[in-house]
């Protein structure tokens, strides 16, 4: 099976842009949210780590676990559930 070079390049560029947006503060928040969510079955099914990154980097979520993160995920049309609803 051959790798689609164009698709690979898109993913690689996205990773480079994402990496450039990370700093010590938002990286710590992302890790805290992921640590709070990884045990829940909805993680990776109803929402992914990409949703966590978007909540922190694009929508300014800074605390864990909070209504801000829940709202951020639940208002994103690509996310159907959050880990925080079961808490």
Provide a descriptive summary of the structure in words.
With 87 residues, the chain is mainly α. The chain has one domain. 55% of the residues lie in helices and 0% in strands. Helix 2 runs antiparallel to helix 3 (49-57). It is globular, with a radius of gyration of 14 Å. The chain starts with a helix and ends in a 13-residue tail after the last helix. Residues 78-87 have low confidence and may be disordered.
Summarize the structure.
This protein is mainly α. The chain has helices at 5-21, 24-37, 49-57, 67-74.
Descriptive key words:
4 helices, mainly alpha, single chain, 87 residues, disordered C terminus, globular
Which helices and strands appear, and what pairs or packs with what?
Blueprint: H1 5-21, H2 24-37, H3 49-57, H4 67-74
Task: Report the sheet with the most strands, covering strand number, pairing sense and barrel closure.
Answer: none
* Tally of helical segments: 4
User: Strand pairing plus helix content: what structural class?
Assistant: mainly alpha
The whole-angstrom Rg is 14 Å
**Outline type:** globular
Strand content: under 5%
The domain count comes to 1
Which oligomerization state do the chains in this entry correspond to?
single chain
| Uncertain ranges | 78-87
């Amino acid at each position: 099976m051959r790798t689609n070079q164009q698709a690979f390049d898109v993913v690689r560029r996205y990773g480079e842009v994402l990496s450039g947006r990370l700093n010590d503060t938002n990286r710590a928040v992302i890790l805290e949210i992921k640590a709070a969510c990884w045990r829940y079955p909805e993680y990776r099914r109803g929402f992914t780590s990409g949703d966590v990154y978007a909540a922190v980097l694009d929508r300014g979520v800074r605390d864990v676990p909070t209504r801000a993160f829940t709202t951020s995920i639940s208002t994103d049309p690509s996310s159907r559930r959050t880990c925080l609803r079961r808490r």
